[in-house]
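Cont'd.
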Amino acid sequence: MSIKIGILGYGNLGRGVEQAVLHNSDMELVAVYSRRDPASVKTVTGVKVVSTEVLDEGKEDIDVLIICGGSATDLPQMTPKYAAMYNVIDSFDTHANIPVHFANVDSAAKASGKVGLISCGWDPGMFSLNRLYAESVLPGGKAYTFWGKGVSQGHSDAIRRIDGVKDARQYTVPVDAALEAVRSGKNPELTTREKHTRLCYVVAEDGADKARIEEEIKTMPNYFADYDTTVNFISEEEMKQNHSGLPHGGSVIYSGSTGDGSMKHVIEYKLTLDSNPEFTGSVLTAYARAVYRMNKDGQSGARTVFDVAPAQLSPLSGDDIRAHML
Amino acid sequence: MSIKIGILGYGNLGRGVEQAVLHNSDMELVAVYSRRDPASVKTVTGVKVVSTEVLDEGKEDIDVLIICGGSATDLPQMTPKYAAMYNVIDSFDTHANIPVHFANVDSAAKASGKVGLISCGWDPGMFSLNRLYAESVLPGGKAYTFWGKGVSQGHSDAIRRIDGVKDARQYTVPVDAALEAVRSGKNPELTTREKHTRLCYVVAEDGADKARIEEEIKTMPNYFADYDTTVNFISEEEMKQNHSGLPHGGSVIYSGSTGDGSMKHVIEYKLTLDSNPEFTGSVLTAYARAVYRMNKDGQSGARTVFDVAPAQLSPLSGDDIRAHML
């Protein structure tokens, strides 16, 4: 019997989950749920599109609903709302609001007897796991997280809002010297500027003042002002040809010691991803299996990746994973 | 209330656990248990040494016994034996015998109502986790495990058994070209010889035939014959000065894809360890916390790292780890 998956929201992440479900033979994609007119949404795999009005009745035959909305406004509403009806999983990544979001999902899911797993993906998600494993094994060490080289959609959008900008792509790039210092176990103190640079490709409108655009980017508070930023103006054709993908990745590097402190140990977890949304969708899909199993075991309430035993993620039996992966 | 830890066996690994317990303020080391005459064993931290005859009575006031014996003959006997009396954890690493060992520990621990966690450390252990996480997220990819640069005690011992050898140290060294091919996502097929080389430092006895020793090393079946091996003869002083540590490490590199296979993703988990036994001891100690908690929750039977939710490893509360590590 397959695990029945529903996808709520059909942007890049929703399409990533759609692809991931195909790679998991114990799962079946039931429907994509959309707030748009279903007739206007065409899925890659041809799976049916259903209005969220139908989903809201709480009677859809799905084991886990994978919620692919934005963290700013969608997920704080959606995840508790749907945890009251279905097992759910999301990729909520507004760090400061995780405790509140967890509490909201927890009370909704406890009341409904469902499981709601929040903040899943790679950061938060796989990177969080690696911070926790490393800190537990080597207490008192120092965790460094580097992102990139990869496209930041938030930063790309921020540039697009500048007057005279037709299109933009922003890459977050970790600084090699900082990476090397951390990998060597030196435990350096690093400023924001020392850890990452920002590389921007911009298509300007005809006749736009490029110097002014570059200045507006480089001085933009929060997004760019604290970084060394490079701005390259390119043609629309070049943008399409060289910058249409959504690669990303990064490293969690943990540096700790044992004994009297003289024995140093460095743990690095590194991701190099051709497609950020397809990888994130794959993580969500693996954890959907765990959500289904935990709920079947009688669990309810909010969970994070920290609460999931790794064996729950695999379609293989305990005997098989012990024989082949241990 | 502290978690009361006992250590069985006081070699390099036992001393590594002794150091690790000091770094975990919610734990207390009760005793080292030894088959040797307790009066003849001096511990680094001064913790008391108790005969295994006392341990065998089954009445020691310990929450978890960390068994630091060898996989060849000690652990297959010891872990089931003591799982009948105490919560236990071991680092059993004879891959082919894991299913049998698991079954033996499982029946003993179920009968006693205790938890027995086997095959913990970094490989098996942290590396196993990374193989499982990666395969679950990107089904159908390929996992590569590289070891080193690091000291292999088994290979060092094998050299020491050769006639005319006074001392020896063997380093396992991963081949850079193989590492790079795997990291690039090329999914190469690699022979044993292509993945690792073996680097040996040997102190020969006065007047020994070095050419014969070198030949015996390089042609030794299983240990060296399938590898490109380099043998360096050095003095006792040089051995002591440059090769007295037990560094190790390695990488699990997983290469998979999403969608139609055109999007490639590479996941790497890399360890660089100054002291193999101190790091392994630290992993065992973190998992001892989980064993204690699982048993307190009413669980019994055999477990592996695959069965342990990451949050169980941390002394911090769920709220704290969500707020600071997610």
